[in-house]
Design a protein that fits this description.
heterodimer; A: Cytochrome Bc1 Complex, Chain C; Helix Hairpins; two-stranded antiparallel sheet; 16 helices; 4 strands; disordered C terminus; B: alpha+beta; Rieske Iron-sulfur Protein; 23% helix
């Protein structure tokens, strides 16, 4: 789909540049004339939204680093000084802390969209796998960042997560000490987490480059999940999708602004406004909302090593999805059976998130949440390792339209029911 | 296949030497993450036991970790002694003053039965467990409850229920007198 370049240098300078550093040609081919399926819906705008989120986090983060002090004795006070004394420090920090939540909100929508429309299937396996890598890097970056304010939840969250490594037999304890640079989370840990928190976003930016590069070889998938067959099926990326992305980005930024200006601590935990105290663990340790489903899996297994394996396995599983799905049809629009299991999966993820947010021994309507989490964890694994391979073989897909153009412009054939 | 030439030998030898050099240079960058000499030299802590009442736990700081010093009641000691060691999830004492394979009897957990001295770090994921008192019981075993993930310890600090794999660790310590103890 990337096809031969249509770039025509217009001036003498552009001709000169084109034979030395063809940057205008690259931009012209990737964000101007790039042929894009004409039927992309709102869910396909989250790629652009995510790029925006990464940019916001990097810009606000660089500013915050100018005022933040990575020292166990000074970190908490320096964050308070950002909030109270630094000009517009409150705004920049609230953009950064809420920006992380908005980033994860967007990435989850982006991932569920990929799952629903089969965007991980051949020839887009590597786009999906690189995406999973970005997601894992995002979680690591968010975790390091959450430690920096050095509040109670920062400290104890760091303690719990780094102790996950101590579950590894024989070398686990040594790995934990190596990560801490001490025998517990302390000043050495804070300093290295700050260093890594500053580094990882730039690694993410690089991997995002690979993600987009890999996307531009086969081109976008689309809600019908069928290949582009003729130029009629596509429109140029600019202005059609630059405008569409910009419109939905504006709506997204309004939501972002509502949190920043009206509910800046909505996603936060009040315990993190208390300075870290290594001698007192808060009664309930809760990670940020975007990590809750994995946290619920960890807690639902009554054995330390198994709990860590189940949690890590849930993330590693994502890498294998392109080969676990045996269906020849990409989009769930034409997969009546898979569509139902997909929504079951969405419910399981939300249920896990809810269980992770409650205390260990809580129950709802007499059902202990630990059992809800166990059932949902089982469904999470079963969805990928049993349902995906089996449903692909036994399901009868609905009739697939002949082409994107026919489906959109609709001669006499009605558009497929959604 | 014909024998390698002098050029092949030089090629493989210089590549191998370069690889060894790279690996040797990697080690300083890995090892710098480990605790510094100053951290390793973190000393010992001397504790005055006289203000601690029977049935009370006081928390001290020891090498960055909470240190539990609990003056147990006779009932708590009897409760810990009544447990069959073989029925415990973790039958080892984890007492740094004893051999590694010492069983988790109450006598092996507390040299002087009245004084139970423990590192206050849950062996699951490192939270600080909450002490149980008759007024505010924590868990079913009268010892400690870790609120993070629900591990329960008995009155000898032994794991009884929940995801934690091991008993709470007993640090190295020595009584200097009846009311003074040196930990570490």
């Amino acid at each position: 789909m990337s096809g031969p370049s249509t770039y025509k240098p217009n001036s003498g300078f552009e001709r000169w540049l084109d034979t030395r550093l063809p940057l205008p040609r690259l931009l012209h081919d990737t964000i101007h004339t790039f042929p894009t399926p004409r039927n992309l819906n709102i869910w396909y705008t989250f790629g652009a939204i995510l790029t925006f989120c990464l940019g916001i986090q990097i810009v606000t983060g660089i500013v915050l680093a100018m005022h933040y002090v990575a020292n166990a004795g000074l970190a908490f006070d320096s964050v308070e000084s950002i909030m109270r004394d630094v000009n517009y420090g409150w705004l920049i920090r609230y953009m950064h802390s809420n920006g992380a939540s908005m980033f994860f909100l967007a990435v989850y929508i982006h991932m569920f969209r990929g799952l629903y429309y089969g965007s991980y299937k051949a020839p887009r396996e590597l786009i999906w796998i690189i995406g999973v890598l970005i997601y894992v890097l995002m979680m690591a970056t968010a975790f390091f960042g959450y430690v920096l304010p050095w509040g109670q939840m920062s400290f104890w969250g760091a303690t719990v997560i780094t102790n996950l490594f101590s579950a590894i037999p024989v070398v686990g304890k040594g790995i934990a000490t190596w990560l801490w640079g001490d025998f517990a989370v302390g000043d050495a840990t804070l300093n290295r987490f700050f260093s890594l928190h500053y580094l990882l976003p730039f690694i993410i930016a690089g991997v995002v480059g690979l993600h987009i590069w890999a996307l531009h070889v086969p081109g976008n998938n689309n809600p019908l999940g069928i290949d582009v067959k003729s130029p009629q099926d596509t429109v140029p990326f600019h202005p059609y999708y630059t405008v569409k992305d910009a419109f939905y980005l504006t709506l997204f930024v309004i939501l972002f602004a509502i949190f920043v200006f009206y509910a800046p601590n909505f996603f936060g935990n009040p315990d993190n406004y208390q300075q870290a105290n290594p001698l007192v663990t808060p009664p309930d340790i809760v990670p940020e909302w975007y990590l809750l489903p994995f946290y619920a899996m960890l807690r639902s297994i009554p054995n330390k090593l198994m709990g860590v394996i189940v949690m890590a396995g849930a993330m590693i599983t994502l890498v294998f999805i392109p080969w676990l799905d045996t269906s020849r049809v990409r989009s769930c629009r034409f997969r009546p059976l898979m569509k139902q299991f997909f929504w079951g999966f969405a419910v399981a993820c939300v249920a896990l998130g809810y269980c992770g947010s409650q205390s260990v021994d809580a129950s709802v309507a007499g059902i202990p949440l630990v059992w809800v989490a166990r059932v949902a964890t089982f469904y999470y694994y079963a969805f990928f390792w049993l349902i995906m391979p089996i449903v692909g073989l036994i399901e009868t897909p609905k009739k697939i339209p002949a082409s994107i153009a026919q489906s959109v412009l609709g001669d006499t054939a009605a558009a497929p029911a959604e | 296949m014909d024998a390698g030439t002098r050029r092949d030998f030089l090629y493989v030898a210089s590549g191998a030497l370069g690889g060894v050099g790279l690996a040797a240079m990697a080690w300083p960058f890995i090892d710098q993450m480990n605790p510094t000499s100053a951290t390793l030299a973190a000393g010992t802590t001397e504790i005055d036991l006289s203000p601690i009442q029977v049935g009370q736990q006081v928390v001290f700081k020891f090498r960055g970790h909470p240190l539990f010093v609990r003056r147990r009641t006779p009932a708590e000691i009897a409760e810990a002694n009544a447990v069959d060691v073989n029925s415990l999830p973790d039958p080892l004492a984890y007492n740094d003053n004893l051999a590694d394979n010492a069983p988790a009897t109450d006598a092996n957990r507390a040299t002087k039965p009245e004084w139970l001295i423990l590192i206050g770090v849950c062996t699951h994921l490192g939270c600080t467990p909450t002490v149980s008192t008759p007024q505010m019981p924590q868990g079913d075993y009268g010892g400690w409850l870790c609120h993070c993930h629900g591990s329960q310890y008995d009155t000898a600090g032994r794991i009884r229920k929940g995801p934690a794999p091991r008993n709470l660790e007993v640090p190295q310590y020595a009584f200097l007198s009846a009311t003074r103890v040196m930990v570490g």
